[in-house]
Amino acid sequence: MKKSPQCQELWAKATERVEFLNTQKIGLPICKLKQAGFARQFFVSKHKYELLAPAGSFPSLIAAVNADADAVYFGLQEGMNMRAGAKNFSLSDLPEIKKICDAKRVKKYLTLNTIIYDNELGKVENIIKKAKKYIDAVICWDLGVIQLCKKYKVPFHISTQASIANIESAKFYKKLGAERVILARELSIKQIKEIAKIMDVEVFIHGAMCVSVSGRCFTSQFLFGKSANRGECLQPCRRAYIVRDEDGNELKLENNTVMSAKDLCTLPFIEELKRAGVRAFKIEGRNREPEYVSALTKVYRKALDKKLNEKAIKEGVEELKKVYTKGFSSGFYLGKPNIGDFSKEQHSSATQRKEFIGIIYHYYPEPSVAAIKIQSGVIKVGDELIIVGDKTGMIAHKIERIEINHQPFGWADKGQEVGIKIPNVRKGDKVYLIIKKK
User: Fold this and answer.
1) What is the largest CA-CA distance in the chain?
2) Averaged over 326-352, what is the pLDDT?
3) I need a labelling partner for 89 at 20 to 30 A (CA). Which of 71, 218, 276, 336 fits?
4) Same-domain check for residues 331 and 385
5) Containing domain of residue 160, as a range?
6) Cα–Cα dist 50/70, whole Å
7) Euclidean distance between the first and final Cα of the chain, in Å?
């Protein structure tokens, strides 16, 4: 039903008020606007700057929420998202996602950001209709998806796949009804500052970078029949290559990962992005592990909440190095990338890794003791563990005591059943040992 001009004015004023409270960094409970038939639910952000964390699975989702993310973004197993290789969620998972996120006032953004064909529009429409009451916005760029979001009055943010790199593009999508634009990755801070004057902008602050412009690469499609533009990229650019001519002569390269870009890391200059007017800061990584999501969210949460001194920035960078990385780059933010922005690592150069140890086969809540069957490796008192589960998320724990048959032991190895005091875990959770690289 079309609202009267008076109702529309009331709605605009209410929205403006919520935005004002948000910028004033005032934490409020959930409020509902019910005047004149409106019942849209507002989440007033807990923080001045919105931090978005990736969620490719329930453990990663819970890890992001527990690490104090303001929002999570995720895709569905039904497809249409740029991370088809992630575990992703089903439509039936949406009520549980909403329950987990609403408990801590975390916004939920659904990605429908691939190229969409005619025969898929009905599927997309069905997804939007069913997801509407469980999400806060859709991340998209295909005009067909945008039209469907408008049809069902679902807020939408324009994906970085749209390559928005100028003021006129931002104006176009704002006029179209977009609440936010996620800018192209190929912009400098100076360029971002100008676009941020037009509307709410979001930028990537950490994670993998594509060697092609905004992911428009066909290498995976040509080599393996898996299209990057459909979220199926197998990342052939990350591989090592040998240059060979038609006579079989090989060219020795100093760095044979010639197309592998380093990961974006903005922690050292995050203050410049704040001053540029950026409202939302996004971590890439829906294919990454829960410990990656947790570590990055915690580090960038601190950086967004207050200005870090040089020592704190260095400490933060060291924390970031502990999880998956191919080395760090400033991307396009401080100038165009050069040869130093390409990685020499074919795989991760993280300073630590995890090794599967076993599964919790029973948990005693009152003493907070986990019964674990060691399936591989050796653990000892003082070791650091990571526990991962669909309900638990990700928990880091240092072993203070190991018991076997109610007797203390300094260590345990494969085949033994041990008791370790670990709070807030569950039966069925997987246990990993953290191993520091030398």
Assistant:
1) 78
2) 84
3) 218
4) no
5) 46-213+260-341
6) 6
7) 65
